[in-house]
Design goal:
28% of the residues lie in helices and 19% in strands. By secondary structure, it is of the alpha/beta class. The strands form 2 sheets. Strands 1-9-10-12-11-2-3-4-5 form a 9-stranded mixed β-sheet, with helices on both faces. Strands 6-8-7 form a 3-stranded parallel β-sheet, with no helix packed on it.
């Protein structure tokens, strides 16, 4: 009975999820951006970090694959199913060439970044060997070894580890792909970014609202109609940081509604850290039936363009990020 009441309570926190409106600029551009994601969202977070490393200074990778992994010979599924065979020398060289062409930011920017990598040892979707490949590739791209932290959870399946009572057990596979493993991994990630943490809030004090994504993707082919944004009260007039949280496959708004932002722990850190949380949402389509982020090069946003600043989905997301960072709230 107590657990049921907690579930009902969380469904209504914060007080209400407001209806979709246009995303308003908040004047956040004075602060660095951090990003994170689960599964395909982890791959997108890495892409956003490496492509825009001048402004993105921290990345949290939960059950992800290395940057550009879909470009290896054979199927992109090798990155997930047989990660030990992924040739990092090929990926590293390809990344360096993209930087020389100006398709991504100079790799020297990564020297000042923080990287957090988490993976479940029992992950049956993206095998645990992918985590070592992510870490090793960052080590090859930067001398900033001290800025990289990784944790392998011996009990965890494929999912984002959270503290919500609505999450599945740590070793369970399946929707909503949020799992309870007995610790606060999102807090651990933020500690990696900031070195120290204030206490997180037990009840969110800000506003979680949906926003209209059709402004950034009128076609509706790459982004869902709505995303979410959480704005702490102290950030309503600007002057805060921005964290972008990318959901994984089967977690977009069309499948889970408000469940991901309400139960993924980010909002409980946003108030105390003074950061806005942006939750973009992908969309189910004929070439993307699971609502994943396009790290694998689905037509027409094909590899390698999809992992550069001119990628269709990448540029839409970056326009969204720049919009909320610029100017003042109207």
């Amino acid at each position: 009975m107590k657990k049921m009441l907690l579930k009902l309570l969380l469904l209504f926190l914060p007080a209400a999820v407001q209806a979709a409106d246009r995303l308003q600029p908040l004047g956040l551009s004075a602060h660095p951006i951090t990003v994170s994601g689960i599964s395909s969202g982890a791959a997108m977070a890495i892409q956003m970090h490496i492509v825009h490393s001048k402004e993105v200074k921290g990345v949290g990778v939960f059950a992800g694959v290395p940057y550009g992994c879909a470009g290896i010979p054979g199927s992109y599924k090798t990155c997930m199913e047989s990660p030990d065979s992924v040739p990092l020398s090929v990926l590293t060289l390809g990344t360096q060439q993209l930087a020389l062409l100006g398709s991504i930011d100079p790799l020297q920017n990564l020297e000042y970044s923080r990287v957090y990598v988490w993976h479940g040892l029992k992950d049956s979707v993206v095998k645990v060997g992918a985590a070592a490949k992510v870490v090793e590739m960052y080590q090859k791209l930067t001398d900033n070894k001290a800025g990289i932290f990784s944790r392998i959870d011996s009990n965890a399946e494929h999912g984002l580890p959270v503290t919500s009572p609505n999450a599945s057990s740590c070793g369970q596979l399946g929707s909503p792909f949020l799992i309870q493993c007995g610790y606060d991994a999102i807090g651990e990630m933020f500690f990696q970014f900031y070195d120290k943490l204030p206490p997180k809030t037990s009840t969110p004090l800000g506003t979680l609202k949906r926003f209209d994504q059709t402004v950034y993707d009128p076609s509706g082919y790459f982004l869902g109609k709505e995303g979410h944004v959480y704005i702490p009260k102290t950030c309503e007039n600007g002057g805060c940081g921005l964290h972008v949280a990318f959901h994984g496959c089967h977690q977009e708004v069309g499948s889970l509604g408000d469940f991901f932002p309400l139960n993924s722990d980010y909002i409980y850190w946003a108030d105390s850290l003074g950061i806005v949380i942006l939750y973009p949402s992908s969309v189910v389509s004929m070439t993307n039936p699971n609502g994943c982020w396009n790290w694998f090069g689905a037509y027409p946003d094909i590899y390698p363009n999809n992992i550069t600043r001119t990628g269709l989905q990448m540029s839409m997301l970056w326009n969204m990020i720049q919009h909320i960072r610029q100017g003042q709230r109207q």
